[in-house]
Write a structure and sequence with these properties.
There is one protein chain. With 133 residues, this protein is an alpha+beta fold. It contains five helices and five strands, in the order E-H-H-E-E-H-H-H-E-E. Strands 1, 2, 3, 4 and 5 form a five-stranded antiparallel β-sheet that branches. The longest helix has 10 residues. It starts with a strand and ends in a 5-residue tail after the last strand.
Length: 133
């Protein structure tokens, strides 16, 4: 199966209480159902967020023909998305009215073990799952 991968970053407020709060709202089962469903509806297959100090790193895997700009615009219109963005902004170094696309900055891949091609971050890296069958 082919898919696209995007990597993004975002800074949290450098405040241990807020960082722990952000982790808590992203714990298993804590994220609002409307948010995860909206992500799936626009073509996001999987998403992981990692943290180091107050810096977040996101891996977002999407359908192969994912159009990042269109999908982010569609996501912003999903039920409760604006409310979620306003809610999580209290933890982030961002404004309350910023969309997810305005907050999360695309990262450029600069190394991969078997790298053959470069790609613009906005296009995502086309990847393919491998089967042991």
């Amino acid at each position: 199966m082919k898919f696209k991968r995007y990597c993004k970053t975002l800074a949290l407020e450098d405040n241990l209480r807020l960082i722990e709060g952000y982790k808590k709202i992203h714990a298993p089962g804590a994220c609002w159902t409307e948010i995860t469903e909206g992500m799936k509806e626009v073509g996001i297959l999987d998403m992981e967020i990692y943290i180091h100090g107050s810096q977040l790193f996101m891996i977002m895997d999407t359908i192969a023909d994912f159009d990042h700009e269109q999908a982010m615009a569609d996501l912003a219109q999903k039920p409760r998305q604006g409310e979620w963005e306003a809610y999580v902004s209290q933890f982030q170094q961002t404004s309350e009215d910023a969309s997810a696309n305005e907050k999360w900055q695309l990262m450029e891949r600069i190394f991969e073990i078997d790298q053959e091609n470069s790609y613009p971050a906005i296009e995502g890296q086309l990847k393919e799952t491998y089967s042991n069958e």
